[in-house]
Amino acid sequence: MKATILASTTFRTLMAITAKFDLEMTQIDTVNMFVYCDLDEVVYIKLPPGFNNGKKDKVLRLRKALYRLQQLLLLWQKNLTSSLTELGFKEVPQEPCIMLKGRIVVFFYINNIVFCY
Q1: What is the span of the domain harbouring residue 30?
Q2: Quick one: average pLDDT of 38-46?
């Protein structure tokens, strides 16, 4: 599975459908999305300058994703998709950034979520 980063064509299509059928649209920006993502592999980081207390070789094991961590977008997408699935949303196989439930469409990219209803 690959994280959905750029889905501009899909978003433009969704905007056209929203306009055509006079749907309502709400957009939210998730804040600190990384704190919700448990890591699915072991990741260690070096302490940043000023935090090592004279121990240059000390490393820390991460339990949660950090901002700018390479796996963050994929972890967030898996977490969000799992939560929406529990709420009864179904994935669109051809579009990994869209989920449907009845007359509700959820479109997500990076840390933005758009609801059309």
Answers
A1: 8-37+69-116
A2: 79
